[in-house]
Amino acid sequence: MQFIRFWPGNNSKVFVPSLQHQYRTFEIKKIKKETFTIQSCYAKLYNLLMNSFKEFAFKKLGYLEFNGDFNTQFKRQKTDIFIKIAYVRSGGIVKIDFEEFMLEKDAFFFINPGQFFEINKDCSGLMVYYNRDFYCIEIHDKEVACDGILFHNIYEIPVILLTPEDSLNLCSLMQQTATEILIGDYGTEEMLRIILKQLIIKCTRIWKKEHGMSTEHARPEIEFLRLFSQLIDTNYTRFHAVADYADLLNITAKALNKRISQYNRISPNNLIKNRIILEAKRLLAHTQLNVKEIGYKLGYNDSSYFIRFFTSHTALSPHKFRLQYQQSYLGN
Q1: Which domains, from first to last, does the chain contain?
Q2: Distance between CA atoms of 50 and 18, rounded to whole angstroms?
């Protein structure tokens, strides 16, 4: 989908309100003769700001504002393959995978491709979504240092709860995405990438502060926790034992257990198992793969062993879990 611009008149200005009723000014230059009413220009530009998309060859980025109509807005876009950053205002209800969040504060959510999420119909907020060709956090990890924290975090679902000041500042930063898409000149691609990096870096700083890890003293441990998270998220279908990851980190299994337990209540063994169970649940809930195929996909050649493993961790067999989820989903 290509972004479209409108030209109502020579060197004219159009004022378009954001959701916070703050007005933004855009310089519009005449390219060809067309007749527009003020109302039609206003409506067209406002719609562009609400739901914008920019494509640079294989690099893609989109922007979406929603106010009680998220599902309607979002279904217009094919976004399964995109990385998503969602800003949701307080009072909303958000489901990420199999966990529900009732928001008492404005919050940011960071959603990986293929990760299930649901935003309640009464929610309002903003979303930026982009593909890895536009910006890959794994390749550019030294720039933003968020991999294993905001994305691919095996310790928790990363949610950034915002103070009123942070909410105002980050919402304003996020809205600059729409402004930049509308400008659409030769520097737009890099400007959009700069805005995205600022957003990720600022949210990573808030996460560290919320978790008591914002000091220089804590930096080595944060990097270790990030690395362990990245290794599990990359290798959980191949390696199921703590010793495997200890070998990758060139330490003993005992040392790995000790180091992780200093900052996390869940043991490395359970972190590995939890990641496997999470993926098994996703595949049971959102695909038509049978239990044997799912077990094989997760590195279990013996389907009977996989069924026992899943049942011991969830108190439900894979079949019962799928049936229960389907009944619950249809009931909603």
Answers
A1: 58-210 (2.60.120), 220-331 (1.10.10.60)
A2: 9
Tokens found for residue 16: 């378009």
Query: Running DSSP on this structure, what letter comes out for residue 213?
Result: -
Sheet holding 117-119, edge to edge: 99-102, 93-96, 117-119
Cα separation of 268 and 111, whole Å?
23
The DSSP line for 124-139 is EEEEEEE-TTT--TTT
Alpha-carbon span 320 to 316, nearest angstrom: 6
109 vs 160: CA distance, rounded Å: 7
Residue 20, Cβ neighbours under 10 Å: how many? 9
Average pLDDT over residues 261-275: 90
Share of the chain above pLDDT 90, in %: 46
- Residues forming a β-bridge with 83: 130
The reported pTM is 0.78
Residue 100: is it exposed, middle or buried by C-beta count within 10 angstroms (0-12/13-18/19+)?
exposed
- For residues 222 and 208, give the distance between their C-alpha atoms in angstroms, rounded to a whole number: 9
d(CA 13, CA 113): 39
Binned at pLDDT 50, 70 and 90, residue 23 comes out as very low
Least confident residue range of 26-35, 91-100, 253-262, 296-305: 26-35
Reported as a single tens digit per residue, the pLDDT across 60-70 is 888 888 887 67
Three-state DSSP at 332 gives coil
